[in-house]
Structure formats: structure tokens, C-alpha cells
Amino acid sequence: MNSAALIAVVCVISLTPCVQTAGSQIPITPPARTVGPLADSLRAFALRMGDLLRNRDAKGTLALYGDPSHFVHVENGNVIPWAQLSAMMTSYFATAKSIALSVIGEPGVMILDRNNAVVYVAHRFDANEGRPAHEGVWTGVLHRFPHGWKIVHSHSSDRSDQR
Known about the structure:
This protein is of the alpha+beta class and 163 residues long. It has four helices and six strands, in the order αααββαββββ.
């Protein structure tokens, strides 16, 4: 066996455990459901946000967000600062005839501590006004202020087509 072939075989053998390790890190069961009054209040927050979106209530939806000077939303890898996100929402809500949004399953909750949590929601938007249907996941980092929970960072991404 020449030295180039030997090096190739050694590389393949040494990389094989990395490939197996990466696959083994994919969770095969969903995390346990977080329970209790705090988790319930966070689920209610997420469901209320869905109601506000469906009702095209820009003022109510924007009121769910915390300090806009430090807020950023990331959508499919694109950073959207607060000024742009709030302008997009306000404009879309003013012109859309309806928002066909549904929550898939139950919002997930991860409590970090008494005043900080992560909420994630699988959702579907039906085709509407020339926009194609799509499914995705929205994740919000929430902080509890004296006047209630507020979104301090959010991320959304479309699910890839599994067909």
C-alpha cells in the first residue's frame, strides 16, 4: 500500500467516531414537560402572543417585548434589530386581511431561574395573500420585569421541507 492510500485509510478511520458521535447527540425523545405555575404562566404568555398575532394587534404584540435598545431578533440566520422588526410588524398588521397562524402542540418552556426563561413554539402559517404556507419554530428568551414577562431576545426559523 502506498503512503497516500495509507494516509487516506487512517483519516477515514480516525473521522468515523466523530460522525457517530454527532449522530448520537441528536435527541430521540422530547425533553420532559416543565410543570408548575411559573411554567404555566410562560405557556399562557406564548399562547397570548399567538392570539395577538392572529388578531393583527400590533400594539399588543409589540408590548410583549422588553427593552428595545438591546433587543434583536434572528430570523433564519438574519439579524433584525428592533426598529426594523417593529416597523415590519406594524406595516404587515395594517395591511394583512388575516394571519392564519396555528400552534403545533404545546409551547415548550425551559425555566432558567425565577426571572428568566426560554419559551419555544412550533407553528404553522397557512398560505395567505400570496405567501406560501410554512412551518417553523419561534424561540423567545423572556425576563420577568416588575410588570410581567417580556421578550428580551427572539429567534425564528423555518422547518426544512422533509419530503
